[in-house]
Amino acid sequence: GFTRVFVPPAPGDAGCALGAALYADRIHFGNPDRDVPDHPFWGPSVDGVELARLASEDGQLVERCEDEDGLIRQTADDLAAGRVIGWMDGALELGPRALGHRSILAPAATTEMRDRLNRDIKFRDEFRPFAPVVPIEAADRYFELPAGGARLARFMSGVFQVRPEWRAALGAITHVDGTTRLQALEREMSPRLYALLQAYGQRTGIPVLLNTSFNLSGEPIVNRAVEGYSTFLRCGIDVLVAEGTRVMKKGALSMPAV
Hints:
- Strand 12 and strand 13 form a beta hairpin.
- The longest helix has 16 residues.
- It contains eight helices and 13 strands.
- The protein is α+β, with helices and mostly antiparallel strands.
- Strands 2-13-12-3-5-11-6-10 form an eight-stranded mixed beta sheet, with helices on both faces. A three-stranded antiparallel beta sheet has the order 7-8-9.
């Protein structure tokens, strides 16, 4: 019944608390409206140096990379090779959706990848679906977005049809009814993830990644580097990236130069 709907990134109880605070600010105290950045990244920032210290003390394979383009290239190569990435970037998301700052990223092509994530990484029921992230300019190519759909997809707030011709190529994120809960990403909202999608698309022809929250079943989304590292050790994630730090588990293949 509406042509444009705004759903904030924290539409549950956290959103109610924010709404109450905003109501008091505007109505009770009479303060004017003010501009707010249109993104969900309001939490603490991750410390890649802390991750490097923790992983080095454990004897893991650790690499510090000052060249951001090189780190993006290496991560895209990892994903194209079928590796699963724990991805920590900047400030933590507000709300229940991982939107690219505390995410587990994986290739979106096969149902086998979906099953692997549920079985070996998330430790949850095998039927549970996963969501994709795609550059907003490419979203309509792979997904059926109605008027206003891109706005809903900004915070992964809407469910849309995967276009039939792409369902086989996007098996890991296509639910049994042909739908998916899409994140359509603008470059300005998360530049590093956007660059990774572009690099992955150059390697595979499809700039779509599986994007799920960086946590195990029953646990909250990770916040600090130590939480991401603990989760990484307790599941089947292949590579952990936080800012300029890249970690692989000891015993894994040596890391290519970045």
